[in-house]
Design goal:
The protein contains five helices and nine strands. The chain is an alpha+beta fold.
């Protein structure tokens, strides 16, 4: 997955044409002042230490899904398309100002309270800001989108790799070359099919 993920994320780097900054913990692509004075179009976080990843892995019953653990070994979370889509990670700092303030959303924090119908193996790995819906994984490779109140699938992907690649493709069509949204707000989340599956 590591080489495929790297190839997929390379497609985000076109945003470098309107700004780039590298901090201790993140690579920031594309300034978007129309979103906020310190906002970036894409935030890609550098891989956490082995110790940090092992510590988080132990806190989940059965551990993290293997494909998500592999993902975190390469990238410590993502915040993409001006926070339209986020994949959670392991914050290294809780600074509120300066370069260290650019951190992923905390995987541990968001999994403190799960929907009532979540199983013991359900893990929230990301979310969409438009409607607060979550991205989930269980004990298999699939990823699904669900509401904030239920883990019932609204949309599914066969794997984490497929989700990241297809969502980058889909969302890229909703923003112009300077990070301005050109699609409708309702298009910012994938639409469910008749069966709630891809």
């Amino acid at each position: 997955m590591k080489s495929t993920l790297k190839t997929t994320l390379m497609r985000l780097m076109s945003a470098r044409s309107f700004g780039y900054k590298e901090t201790r913990y993140a690579k920031l692509f594309g300034r978007v002042p129309h979103v906020g004075a310190e906002a970036w179009f894409h935030e890609i976080f550098k891989s956490p230490s082995r110790e940090a990843l092992l510590s988080v892995d132990r806190k989940f019953r059965g551990g993290l899904p293997s494909s998500f653990k592999t993902f975190l070994q390469s990238v410590n979370g993502l915040i993409l398309f001006s926070d339209t889509l986020a994949v959670f990670g392991i914050p290294v700092s809780y600074a509120r100002r300066g370069d260290d303030a650019y951190q992923p959303y905390s995987l541990l924090d968001v999994n403190q309270e799960l929907p009532a119908n979540a199983s013991d193996t359900t893990i929230l790995i990301g979310r969409y800001s438009y409607d607060g819906s979550n991205l989930c994984m269980g004990d298999g490779p699939r990823v699904w989108r669900c509401s904030s109140k239920s883990i019932r699938p609204l949309y599914e992907w066969p794997s984490l790799e497929n989700m990241i690649e297809s969502e980058i493709d889909r969302l890229s069509c909703l923003f112009d070359a300077t990070g301005h949204q050109i699609g409708k707000d309702s298009q910012l989340v994938p639409k469910k099919t008749a069966r709630g599956r891809v």
